[in-house]
Amino acid sequence: MGKFEIQSMPVQRPENNYSCGYDKVSVNGSVRNGNNGLVRIIEEGLATLQNGRNPDSVDEDDEDLSGKKLDVEMPEGMKLLSNQVAGHVIEDSGGVGMLSKDDKVYKPLLKKDCAEREIRLYEQLETTVDRSLIEMRHLVPKYYGVEKIMFKDKLIDYLVLENLTKDFKEPCVMDIKIGRRTWDPYASYSKIIAEEKKYHECKRDLGFCIPGLQVYKIAQNRLVKYGKDFGKTLDKDSAKEVIKEFLNADCYHFCRKLLMQLLACLWQIQHFARNQRRLRLYASSILLVYDARRLKEHLKPARECQNNRISTLTRHTSLYRPLSLATLNNGCEKVVTGFSGQLTKEGPILRHPSKRIVNLEGPRIINNNNTWQKSMRLLKRTHSFQNNYDKDVQHKKQSYTFMLDDLCSDWKSEVWATAKLIDFAHVYPADSMDIDRNYLDGVDNLVKLFEDFLAETEE
Ligand SMILES: Nc1ncnc2c1ncn2[C@@H]1O[C@H](COP(=O)(O)OP(=O)(O)OP(=O)(O)O)[C@@H](O)[C@H]1O
Ligand SMILES: O=P(O)(O)O[C@@H]1[C@H](O)[C@H](O)[C@@H](OP(=O)(O)O)[C@H](OP(=O)(O)O)[C@H]1O
């Protein structure tokens, strides 16, 4: 498979999924597949669908990672964590999954040893006097302890953490598992073999892998999720492309502000990894999160985007562009519609504008009795030459939703992207005072990749 066929292509050609044999369900015209699936395109016209809110607060709460409807009764006030991109999912975990409520996420503690290690670490970070662990405390989500919750007649322990996407309207999330070696010193032989087989090229060449991500694709106005089976196909080049896509930099120029926010966190993580000698972090992740809604405010004009190429070209070269109608309706601008007066199924027949019809240089007189203008006005309302009418309305709705959101929020944080350390199920106290090379190498490579992206913005 060619390098470019693997990564961003599924987004443009969702039918690629079909050949992979995963479950697929079509919902509202979108394509979805199993939670291991290569890609899950959630929905076009997100603002309309989600009313401009974080999907954690909309009706996806009875869906699993793959978007399948689940018939599970949720504990009071809780929903499934719809922004979950990797990790154990509800079907693999006896019907118990990651939940969210208010600004918190709830991670079920199902494996005793993993649970004990993870809790121990969070508790240790609360009380530590070790300098590098104090540093680490600021690099993890806020810890709210362990809560027992009745789920399907069973009392289950949940780790309660700050939801890192809580302030985001359109959360983009990428789980990056750090380390060439993702098995711990107590792993069984079969676990070692299983881990070594997975994400092989990516781990070997980059020292990290990407088990899952979701991105609000701004150019296409839709949410796309990539599952772990997609992650397992990546190599160092395709991983880089996917990270670019995650940053919406496949269709736009890199946004320096976004890169700087993420790099600021990654540099802190790197500083920690370079200095800490107390822990060995196996199979632990860095969660990158940002708000695509805020990114939109900073995007430079789109460069040629493969996904958009067709629509951009048709819009700019088409004689039927709605712009000509809009100008006509102003009645006082330069009017160059070239409308011949004849309509076909495909839209109006155009010809070179006649000076006789439109006097461009005359006084700015708006003649509302002009029957031609009237009929064009009517036409514009009733006839969508390129189905852009719906799009226009959608865009208007979207801007209103955004305005409303801005008006409703008390404040607009300057920080809309961050990177935090998560998943400490396989973190152990170090048995020597060496640096955790396995962990540091992955972090170094990730930082380097982001630094290279930043350098591209300076070219
Ligand atoms: N604090 C958080 N805020 C928001 N999302 C989170 C948070 N913690 C975890 N998640 C989401 O849940 C996913 C799984 O988290 P985590 O890695 O802790 O679970 P896990 O089941 O232990 O994973 P694994 O199977 O890799 O061991 C992450 O990829 C992320 O999407
Ligand atoms: O990336 P994948 O393919 O999802 O692989 C899973 C991943 O390595 C998890 O970290 C691991 O859970 P633990 O951290 O609990 O070991 C899980 O083991 P499991 O299948 O034994 O649960 C693996 O299946």
Query: What's the name of the CATH homologous superfamily of the domain at 79-300 and 415-456?
Result: Inositol polyphosphate kinase
Global mean pLDDT: 74
Summed up, the helix count is 16
Estimate the helix proportion, in percent: 25-40%
Using DSSP, what is the number of strands? 17
Shape, principal axes of CA atoms: globular
Work out the strand percent.
15-25%
Distance between the terminal alpha carbons, to the nearest Å?
31 Å
The major sheet is characterized as: 6 strands, antiparallel
At CATH's second level, what is the architecture of the domain at 79-300 and 415-456? 2-Layer Sandwich
Account of the 3D structure:
Helices cover 36% and strands 20% of the residues. The chain has helices spanning 3-6, 9-12, 46-50, 112-127, 131-137, 189-197, 200-206, 228-231, 236-246, 256-275, 292-296, 309-317, 322-330, 371-382, 388-408, 437-458, and strands spanning 24-27, 30-33, 40-44, 79-80, 99-101, 104-108, 143-151, 154-162, 171-178, 208-217, 222-226, 279-281, 284-291, 339-344, 347-350, 417-422, 427-429. It is built from 16 helices and 17 strands. The chain has a domain at 79-300 and 415-456: Inositol polyphosphate kinase (D-amino Acid Aminotransferase, Chain A, domain 1), CATH 3.30.470. Helix 5 (131-137) packs antiparallel against helix 10 (256-275). By secondary structure, the chain is α+β, with helices and mostly antiparallel strands. The strands form five sheets. Strands 3-11-10-9-13-16 form a six-stranded antiparallel beta sheet. Strands 4-5-6-8-7 form a five-stranded antiparallel beta sheet. A two-stranded antiparallel ribbon has the order 1-2. The structure holds adenosine-5'-triphosphate and D-MYO-inositol-1,4,5-triphosphate. Residues 111, 114, 198, 211, 228, 283, 425-426 line the site of D-MYO-inositol-1,4,5-triphosphate.
